[in-house]
Amino acid sequence: MVIYQIQAAIEAIEKNAALYQETSFDRRVEAIDALEFNIVDRIEGLLQTVNPPEELIALKQAAERVKRQLEEIDATLFQRLRADIRRGSCAGAAFKDLIEAYVGPDASNRQPQDEPGYDSLDLFINGLLLSRAVPNETKAREPEMVYYQQTPARIIFELVEKAQLTEEDVFYDVGSGLGQVPILVNLLSGAPAKGIEFEPAYGDYARLSAVDLNLSRVTFIQADARTADYSDGTVFFMYTPFEGRMLQEVLVKLRGEAHRRRIRLFTYGPCTPQVARQSWLKRIDQNGDHLYKLGTFQSG
Ligand SMILES: C[S@@+](CC[C@H](N)C(=O)[O-])C[C@H]1O[C@@H](n2cnc3c(N)ncnc32)[C@H](O)[C@@H]1O
What we know:
This protein is of the alpha/beta class.
């Protein structure tokens, strides 16, 4: 009985023609998840029991084969899209349309959540921009430095929507990790975008991604945010790269920049309340103490 159920579940996925259409990214995500977590995991559980049915091995292989076929569609899709980006034919409105075609409408208006939850937009962006293995950290972090965690892609889309960056702007991601924030900001807005990252292995990863995509206006600088040069920055983003005194030190540095020109600062995560207490910054969103909504500030 169980064997028939599993076989039927694999066949239902394998014969679902919609899954083989390139644009069915969301549906493929669900099918790949079902194959991995409902089907293969279930088979592996059954294989641990006494005298498991022989057919299970063949079913496991079939499930893995179908999963590989679906994953290959995504891999080919991302390769082609990366080639389009390299050629410059997939930026700005074209890039937004592409996201809509593959991940559905309202990518920039997804509901904010109570925590940094991720969705199919993140899976799509990760497939496109973060396909290489994440490198190990090479430098010891100081206690106030926060470990790498990526900003949910919907927040980056929201930032670009709200920031309305122009040719005069220079965007900075302070603590840029693997680099997808400056890359996406540049792809969506065309504005020059820079990332400041303490960990050299992350900076190298990000730099390679930008070079591979031929994005000459995206730069990654390996530096401690406390000593980095922000002299051309107009729009800054922080997904809580550090806390406490270290955050205060960098905010004092940004205040110095704000004496020379008006700057805007977007925040995400636990750094927002500390940023909100800075008297030189005016808060222009209505998100109160909500840590996982985009904080929007500008200097007076
Ligand atoms: C929460 S992650 C955010 C990563 C990135 N902004 C993103 O959304 O993908 C914080 C990042 O800040 C970096 N970081 C921590 N302290 C730093 C410092 N003093 N200077 C520069 N980067 C720092 C960490 O290595 C980590 O990559």
